[in-house]
User: Fold ferredoxin--NADP(+) reductase from Microbacterium laevaniformans.
Amino acid sequence: MTKLRLAIVGAGPAGIYAADILLKAERKFDVSIDLFDHLPAPYGLVRYGVAPDHPRIKGIITALRDVLDRGDIRIFGNVRFGQDLTLDDLKQHYNAVIFATGAIKDADLDIPGIDAAGSFGAADFVSWYDGHPDFPREWPLDAASVAVIGNGNVALDVARVLAKHAEDLLVTEIPANVQAGLEASQVTDVHVFGRRGPAQVKFTPLELRELGELRDVDMVVYDEDFDYDEASRTAVASNKQVMVIDRVLQSWRQRPGVNNAGGEASRRLHLHFWAKPVEVKTDDSGRVAALVYERTRPDGQGGVIGTGELREVPIQQLYRAVGYFGSPLPGVPFDKKHGVIPNHEGQVLHKDSNERVPGVYATGWIKRGPVGLIGHTKSDAMETISHLINDQASWWQPTDPSPEAIPALLAERGVAWTDLDGWHRLDEHEVALGAPHERARIKVVDRDEMVRVSRGE
Ligand SMILES: Cc1cc2nc3c(=O)[nH]c(=O)nc-3n(C[C@H](O)[C@H](O)[C@H](O)COP(=O)(O)OP(=O)(O)OC[C@H]3O[C@@H](n4cnc5c(N)ncnc54)[C@H](O)[C@@H]3O)c2cc1C
Assistant:
């Protein structure tokens, strides 16, 4: 029987679901899968993106772990594609590769002053509070008034983590440096800005409602933002999700704190709609001092246009949460405009000719762009895998498909890779760190320590 030796690069949900779907698929050949990730621990953004105070979503890790624990997928953690392994290496040892490398960087926001001191990408802050090993350990939460730009779930995650009192995050898996950073926070006001109206937001009702339940945080909405046009009224009446969002926001209009008057909490979380950021102003030392935004209004076609009215909110820090962006991989086509690997339903295409690149596939956020929930990566993987199965005639013909070749190559290159047993060791270690504090786990952040614990050194 023919055998498919498959490399999957990226052990986030997209990569793990792809492996699972292929192993369970009806097919006329055997399969052996090697799964690579440049991090010493698996699960991608489920571990390093999903907010620590969302344990139910973090719990998806249990299902992903069950897939790995079946034992029919070989794991190589702490191996970076493009550095420790190249496309040519993979061609020599596999029949095909699936890239599932996701996205970790912030999309740009091109306004004057955006690079000032105190202006950050939300993705970097997320990586800090979720204990990603490759980001700085310190985060200066020294601002009283902070702007978050964006109207998606990541903007709400960032605003919530900033507004929440540190002791209310202590029950989570946050590492000690994050706890200390949040405890030192000077924040009193978090302002979230969206270009469009309450009926056009991209966040989901559950994430929004949660904001209203934060202890000692007043939700501040402004009456002027609720003068709905016809399109907004139709959206509220016809779309259940928009209807629930509207209901939540309207309930906050009845609370003390509306229009920023009468609230009693020590922190406030303001939602500003119809607000298009136009400039970040700085003080004499070049530090963020204010956000200038233009008031917008609906254009009657589902979009917005500027009204010309400029307003200014004093802030000392700013986070742009306007989307994630994928990173190019050496030797692999890349669409610089959209931050994805160009592909047709997961079959990778040459950038200019649009012709297929045999043996190379993509799935997850690097395939379709950084939108959608974890569950969407499953349907993504199904599409990619069905092409991989049908493309048998164009798979690579490796010169050395033996399973021993890859560990030998990595050892020769001095790569300290981690395997499934190592991931179990790290998992048990983190759970043990949390136990004395009655927490489910405390994350290890330092990459060398992660590797040492995983390798039992
Ligand atoms: C802040 C944030 C919060 C979110 N919250 C939720 C939520 O509450 N609920 C929900 O359903 N979804 C949520 N999502 C979306 C969810 O995280 C994504 O849908 C999902 O993680 C995408 O999966 P992926 O496997 O494509 O990418 P990722 O999860 O990013 O996995 C990619 C993997 O590839 C690895 N990799 C990258 N480059 C290389 C390389 N060169 N060599 C080797 N390995 C590499 C990375 O280390 C990573 O492990 C959130 C996303 C973000 C950013």
